[in-house]
């Protein structure tokens, strides 16, 4: 028996025995699917495999890229979502009994889907006001670059943003460097120079981050560097934008008293749509 929110009921093993619920012992991938095509599938697959190895999960023999694709397609087909843009989240978690130390490293997975409004990436013409979140810091280490279920810092930063009428927050690492936003990687534009924090600073190893580094490196007249970003650089920047696989590119319009342009981000979104689709 358990006491679930004031009601005594039979223990729900899917909840109370789930290591993802108890310890955050899980990793996840968020993917965008457009008309049945999974964008950047290979990159998502290899990141998932690498993450599972880092946290010592047993990778099942059937976990090929083709198998995972077929499982996603099977879900989309059953939910009548194959002809729509869709957000998919795949969570992989350890299934073993045990406390902190699991009895084995076997895994199970859950795949969820939700329809989206936009098929193509679009630079929204609306405010995105941000500030620094300084209550807690990202630790610059390998684990910080993984998409695990341990996102408490991001959740608290999200609450802070709502309390202060912000659209997003920029997270700092313990060295007081700008690392990322609550829900994506950060790029800073100054003239023709574009930079984004390196993975060694602790930012998420974002799939869209990877795509944009490759895309910008081919843009004539611009350079892309993976370099640490100081908070002092933010007010000197011409543009700041946030990236993730679902939204693509989101331009920051204001940081404190500084307002930003969006011209470079607009160019990138046009190229991104050609590249992704």
Topology:
Layout: E1 2-4, E2 7-9, H1 13-16, H2 19-23, E3 26-34, E4 37-38, H3 41-54, H4 65-78, E5 85-94, E6 107-115, E7 129-138, H5 152-163, E8 168-173, E9 178-181, E10 185-190, E11 193-196, H6 207-217, E12 223-226, E13 239-244, E14 248-251, E15 254-255, E16 258-259, H7 263-276
Parallel strand pairs: 7-8, 7-15, 11-12
Antiparallel strand pairs: 1-2, 3-4, 3-5, 5-6, 8-9, 10-11, 10-13, 13-14, 15-16
Helix pairs in contact: 6-7
- Structural class per helix/strand content? alpha+beta
Please identify the top-level CATH class of the largest domain.
Answer: Alpha Beta
Helix content: 25-40%
Report the order of strands and helices.
EEHHEEHHEEEHEEEEHEEEEEH
Strand content: 25-35%
Shape, please? globular
Kindly provide the radius of gyration, computed on alpha-carbon positions and rounded to a whole number of angstroms.
20 Å
Mean pLDDT: 95
At the third CATH level, what is the topology name of the largest domain? D-amino Acid Aminotransferase, Chain A, domain 2
Low-confidence residue ranges: none
Distance between the termini: 51 Å
Q: What number of structural domains do the residues give? A: 2
| SS field, number of helical segments | 7
Name given to the CATH homologous superfamily of the largest domain: D-amino Acid Aminotransferase, subunit A, domain 2
Count the strands?
A: 16
Please describe the biggest sheet, giving its number of strands, its sense, and whether it closes into a barrel: 5 strands, mixed
Going by CATH, the architecture of the largest domain would be: Alpha-Beta Barrel
Strand order of the largest sheet: 9-8-7-15-16
């Amino acid at each position: 028996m358990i006491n679930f929110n004031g009601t005594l009921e039979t223990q729900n093993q899917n909840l109370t025995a789930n290591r993802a619920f108890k310890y955050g012992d899980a990793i996840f991938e968020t993917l965008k699917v457009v008309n049945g095509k999974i964008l950047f599938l290979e990159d998502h697959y290899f990141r998932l495999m690498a993450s599972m190895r880092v946290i010592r999960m047993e990778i099942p023999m059937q976990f090929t890229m083709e198998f995972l694709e077929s499982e996603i397609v099977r879900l989309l087909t059953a939910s009548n979502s194959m002809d729509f843009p869709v957000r998919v989240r795949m969570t992989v978690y350890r299934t073993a009994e045990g406390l902190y130390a699991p009895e084995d490293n076997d895994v199970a997975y859950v795949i969820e889907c939700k329809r989206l409004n936009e098929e193509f990436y679009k630079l929204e013409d609306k405010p995105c006001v941000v500030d620094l979140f300084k209550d807690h810091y990202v630790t610059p280490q390998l684990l910080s670059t993984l998409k695990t279920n341990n996102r408490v810092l991001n959740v608290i930063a999200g609450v802070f943003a709502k309390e202060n009428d912000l659209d997003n927050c920029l997270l700092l690492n313990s060295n007081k460097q700008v690392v990322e936003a609550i829900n994506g990687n950060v790029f800073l534009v100054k003239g023709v120079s574009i930079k984004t924090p390196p993975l060694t600073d602790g930012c998420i190893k974002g799939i869209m981050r990877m795509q944009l580094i490759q895309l910008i490196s081919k843009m004539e007249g611009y350079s892309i560097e993976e370099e640490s970003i100081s908070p002092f650089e933010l007010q000197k920047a011409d543009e700041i934008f946030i990236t993730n696989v679902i939204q693509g590119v989101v331009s920051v319009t204001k940081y404190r008293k500084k307002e930003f342009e969006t011209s470079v981000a607009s160019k990138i979104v046009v190229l991104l749509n050609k590249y992704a689709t």
